Task: inverse folding
């Protein structure tokens, strides 16, 4: 592919290899050989250390999106629907996708650069000499960290976006907060939170698998580190957007079928 500066066949093969890393790490996993401290360290990197940028992004997106939408609803005299539309947009699409994009850019690139540097400096071979499996020591803790922290960051981002939307509607457009919150309560369901959780869980797997495999298969010295890092981030973003379309289509079809059955 021209965007990734590699051919399509090689790109597809690398994606398959990335998920083989995950399958292999799961197949050899045992509670006795799980590196708990490594997983906790990576969870701190993915979660608390990424919290500030996620909150700032959610704050700005919520503010801009609300300013763009509220005027149209006021013109249509549909104030009672504001909370429902904004909350559903945030929980279903904006919060999961934007949080995943932030983690792919910040954490995915760091994972790839770190593992690529270890690969070209033969630190991976040193782990084999120490009878330590790199998949369990390096890959599995990062997979656990991304899949566990991304849903939490998603909920925090959603709450931040919804809070700033409520504040903006009240301060700038005199929308009663009670009307806004009532609309949110009536529109949201446990299924919406489950779909959002499922999306972030899959996005976390995509980011961790691709970034780790791109790092562990790096060749070509320091130049290869830069190329692998760029390629892993671009690939992660492309796969995230493609999977978001697929998941949204499937979930929308299921929701429509459930409504028709009623």
Result:
């Amino acid at each position: 592919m021209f965007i990734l500066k590699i051919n399509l066949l090689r790109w597809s093969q690398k994606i398959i290899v990335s998920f083989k890393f995950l399958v292999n790490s799961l197949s050899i996993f045992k509670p006795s050989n799980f590196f708990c401290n490594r997983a906790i360290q990576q969870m701190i990197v993915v979660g608390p250390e990424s919290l500030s940028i996620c909150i700032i992004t959610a704050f700005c997106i919520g503010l801009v999106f609300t300013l763009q939408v509220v005027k149209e609803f006021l013109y249509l005299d549909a104030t009672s629907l504001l909370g429902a539309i904004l909350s559903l947009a945030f929980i279903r699409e904006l919060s999961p996708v934007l949080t995943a994009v932030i983690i792919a850019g910040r954490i995915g690139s760091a994972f790839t650069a770190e593992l690529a540097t270890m690969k070209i400096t033969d630190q991976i071979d040193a782990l084999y000499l120490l009878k330590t499996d790199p998949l369990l020591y390096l890959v599995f803790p990062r997979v656990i960290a991304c899949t566990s922290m991304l849903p939490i960051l998603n909920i925090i981002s959603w709450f931040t976006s919804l809070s700033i939307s409520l504040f903006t509607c009240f301060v700038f457009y005199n929308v009663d907060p009670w009307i806004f919150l009532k609309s949110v309560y009536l529109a949201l369901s446990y299924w919406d939170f489950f779909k959002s959780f499922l999306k972030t869980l899959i996005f976390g797997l995509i980011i961790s698998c691709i970034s780790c495999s791109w790092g562990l298969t790096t060749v070509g010295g320091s130049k290869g580190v830069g190329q692998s890092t760029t390629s892993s981030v671009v690939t992660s973003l492309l796969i995230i957007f493609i999977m978001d379309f697929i998941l949204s289509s499937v979930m929308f079809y299921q929701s429509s079928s459930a409504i028709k059955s009623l």
About this structure: The chain has a mean pLDDT of 84. The chain has one domain: 41-250.
